[in-house]
Specification:
Blueprint lengths: L4 H4 L3 H9 L3 H25 L11 H7 L16 H5 L1 H6 L4 H12 L3 E5 L25 H4 L29 E6 L3 E9 L1 E2 L6 E3 L30 H15 L19 E4 L2 E2 L5 E3 L14 E4 L4 E4 L9 E9 L22 E5 L8 H10 L5 E5 L4 E3 L3 E3 L5 E6 L6 E3 L4 E4 L12 E6 L2 E3 L2 E4 L2 E6 L2 E2 L19 E3 L8 E5 L2 E2 L2 E2 L6 E10 L12 E4 L11 E9 L1 E4 L2 E5 L2 E2 L3 E3 L7 E2 L14 E2 L4 H11 L5 H10 L23 H4 L16 H15 L5 E6 L2
Parallel strand pairs: 2-37, 8-9, 12-13, 13-16, 14-17, 15-18, 16-19, 17-20, 18-21, 19-22, 20-23, 21-24, 22-25, 24-27, 25-28, 26-28, 27-29, 28-30, 29-31, 30-32, 30-33, 31-34, 32-35, 35-36
Antiparallel strand pairs: 1-2, 3-11, 4-5, 5-10, 6-7, 6-11, 9-10
């Protein structure tokens, strides 16, 4: 709509004459108004940029310069801002050197929850009878919860002196030592998720809708909460046990008992609804459920926070299912998850049909929503799921010529789709069908157990979603079909088939070279290993599981790939972590840059630039002035193989580079960040910024060590 503010300022006589001539003056003033709006926006922006609270992100370093905040590496990640650090600079300086300020500083500089420990406070020494330190006495061996915290961030028991330096993460307990503990994993709260019944125990259920063991995380509370409840960390078994026990002892006979204990309840980290009725805290017990033990008779349900399992007492088995509220842990907003996606949701306009799925919505199932879409004539539409429940996805979607369909989750939701049969996506094909007739399908914010089967002239976009590696997980968290692909292209007419994957976790991809393209960014491609094995059982990207034929023209940016890659053309591989051999059939085209290729001699790629271990080998040979001997070469290549905290999907630290991983990989991206899917987090820059800031705010004579807890 045109801006008529200037036009309405004209006298009525001129507007009447302008209307008689087809309103040319109105059109002219509309163009002038556009320029005026731009100038007005610039003036408003200039005013807002005076203040740290409203300034644009690019202005923050300049405001910092006015305060003398210098020496910090610029972080371009959308997941983190230095705004808090600059805004609180004067607050820090007035109280510099105190443990409280160092903790706040660490939080603001890195964006990670932090806890500071002054190790002289937990140092054991001979006491003077005139100055008794009651918190520095012999530990009570009956205090199980305190003993369980030994050598952990919230350990309060006295220790003998350790004279090693703390800045290299070796020593801790000494008078001048300060420890900064950082939690890099985030907690993601799921609401009204459908618990999964165990396949081996009728009384047992998994909190995870995928039926895999996964630790339950704490939902961080504000200041004033117990120490452990201020950080997003796995709930400790012993602490959960004592929490439920103390609650039961205190409120056993109280009919008006509060709904929440420290960890359990509607306003806490975890709670359970059985048959649409809330299970109260006094009816919950903690048990080790490795063998699916049932709770004692006086309790209704037993919970194992380490495995994410629950069992019901005899006679208390659910009749209509279990819904759970809980938190799981992960490194970043990758894959299907209940994180902020508002800016990436498809907008609904008058020309787009929205079909709502979920409780209280017109359709309760995906199949019903698809029937509604088909009955409406298959218009351009968005099927949106409004909860985090589990849905049956044994479906076939036949897309219309030149049409598109979006299946997504509402912001903050993570629905799980279960497809025991392949979820078939059929696009137009056959005689007379051209590339202009291609259809489009977008999957966003979803978790799919099963796999996709694509055919026809199609552009598939998978964003903020998870296609479970290995198609499904078993009771122990291992893939049920380790040699199965998550995305398979079938059919003969696939020359106009494109697949685009953003911010997602997917299993192996089977696409023939005839497909037009495969583009993957900020994602994980995982050909998982079988139980008891460390190596992938199949190719990650190829035309078939044995990599006998190449995949299509492929672009990879900021991707972690578990498994072999064999493609026709590797058009671009930028900041990619490959864990196995990489083969490109046509090497004269394309480029691999700022990536790690662990088998440089066996891999056949386009020209490589600033890649590892090539860069390290060239540097070492330059230092020595000769070629490396075979043993030296092999040793260097082995040191630069990627190492991960976990390679099992479903674990909180999945695909996270290990602390022991080579620094050349952890800082080898173009921007100095780590290679792979978590490049966006810019974790090395955050840690470097914290070390720089500590030079100003650490008291003279003290030495600080940074410890990454998760």
């Amino acid at each position: 709509m045109s801006d008529d503010r200037l036009y309405k300022l004209l006298p009525a006589v001129y507007r009447i004459r302008d209307a008689d001539q087809g309103e040319p003056l109105r059109a002219l003033l509309a163009l002038i108004s556009e320029e005026m709006n731009g100038v007005e926006a610039d003036i408003t922006g200039l005013y807002e940029n005076w203040f740290i609270e409203t300034a644009d992100e690019w202005v923050v370093p300049y405001i910092g310069d006015l305060l003398g905040v210098r020496g910090l590496t610029t972080i371009n990640s959308t997941a983190f801002s230095q705004r808090s650090y600059v805004a609180n600079t004067l607050f820090y300086r007035r109280r510099k050197g105190t443990a409280y300020i160092l903790e706040q500083l660490a939080k603001d500089v890195t964006g990670w929850p932090a806890h500071v420990v002054e190790f002289f406070e937990v140092l054991d020494w001979t006491q003077n009878v005139n100055h008794i330190r009651l918190f520095n006495t012999t530990p009570d061996l009956r205090a199980t919860n305190s003993l369980n915290l030994i050598d952990k961030p919230f350990d309060s028991l006295p220790h003998t002196v350790d004279v090693r330096h703390i800045n290299n993460r070796r020593g801790k307990n000494n008078i001048p030592n300060i420890g900064l503990f950082l939690w890099r994993l985030q907690n993601y709260p799921l609401q009204k998720a459908t618990a999964r019944q165990s396949e081996v125990a009728t009384c047992g259920w998994h909190f995870s809708p995928l039926g895999n063991p996964a630790p339950l995380f704490n939902f961080p509370l504000g200041e004033g909460a117990p120490d452990e409840q201020t950080v997003p960390a796995p709930i400790r078994q012993v602490d959960f046990l004592f929490d439920l026990k103390s609650y039961s002892d205190k409120y056993a006979s109280d009919p008006d008992a509060p709904a929440n204990s420290r960890y359990y309840g509607p306003d806490r980290s975890v709670y359970i609804v059985k048959d649409n009725i809330l299970v109260k805290a006094k009816d919950v017990a903690y048990l080790d459920l490795k063998n699916w033990s049932q709770p004692p008779p006086e309790k209704m349900v037993a919970v194992d926070v380490e495995l994410g399992r629950m069992t019901f007492a005899p006679g208390e088995e659910p009749a209509s299912g279990v819904r759970v509220w809980y938190n799981y842990g992960f490194s970043a907003d990758i894959g299907g998850g209940p994180y902020e996606r508002r800016d990436r949701l498809t907008g609904i306009t008058a020309s787009i049909l929205e079909i709502q799925v979920g409780p209280g919505k017109p359709d309760a199932t995906l199949s019903a929503a698809l029937v509604r879409w088909v009955n409406a004539g298959k218009p351009d539409a968005v099927i949106r799921i409004y909860d985090s429940a589990t849905y049956n996805a044994n479906l076939t979607i036949d897309l219309p010529s030149k049409g598109w369909l979006v299946i997504d989750a509402d912001n903050g939701q993570r629905p799980v789709l279960i497809a025991t049969e392949p979820l078939k996506i059929n696009a137009p094909t056959g005689t007379g069908v051209t590339a202009e007739d291609a259809a489009g399908l977008t999957l966003s914010g979803l978790v799919l157990e099963g796999y996709l089967d694509l055919s026809g002239k199609l552009t598939l976009t998978v964003t903020d979603s998870t296609l479970v590696p290995g198609r499904a997980l078993d009771e122990d968290g291992f893939p049920q079909e380790a040699d199965g692909a998550s995305l398979v292209v079938s059919g003969s007419d696939v020359t106009d088939l494109n697949v685009i994957i953003y911010r997602s976790i997917v299993g192996a991809i089977e696409m023939p070279a005839e497909c037009q393209s495969l583009v993957i960014r900020d994602s994980v491609v995982d050909a998982p290993a079988k139980s008891g094995s460390l190596d992938s059982t199949r190719a990650a990207i190829a035309a078939d599981k044995n990599a006998a034929s190449p995949g299509p023209v492929t672009t990879l940016e900021r991707v972690t790939v578990f498994g072999e890659v064999y493609v026709k053309i590797l058009k671009l591989a930028s900041e990619v972590v490959f864990t196995s051999m990489v083969l490109a059939e046509q090497r004269q085209e394309g480029c691999v840059r700022f990536s790690v290729v662990p088998d440089p001699d066996e891999s056949h790629t386009p020209r490589r630039f600033q890649c590892q271990p090539d860069l390290a080998i060239a540097k070492k040979e330059k230092e020595l002035g000769r070629s490396l001997f075979t043993d030296e070469h092999n040793q260097l290549v082995m040191r630069l193989r990627p190492q991960f905290t976990s390679r099992h999907y479903g674990q909180p630290a999945y695909a996270q580079l290990s602390i022991a991983c080579a620094d050349e990989i952890k800082t080898g991206a173009e921007v100095g960040s780590e290679m792979g899917v978590f490049c966006m987090l810019q974790q090395p820059q955050r840690e470097a910024n914290l070390r720089t800031a500590l030079d100003e705010y650490l008291r003279f004579g003290l030495e600080a060590g940074i410890f990454l807890v998760t």
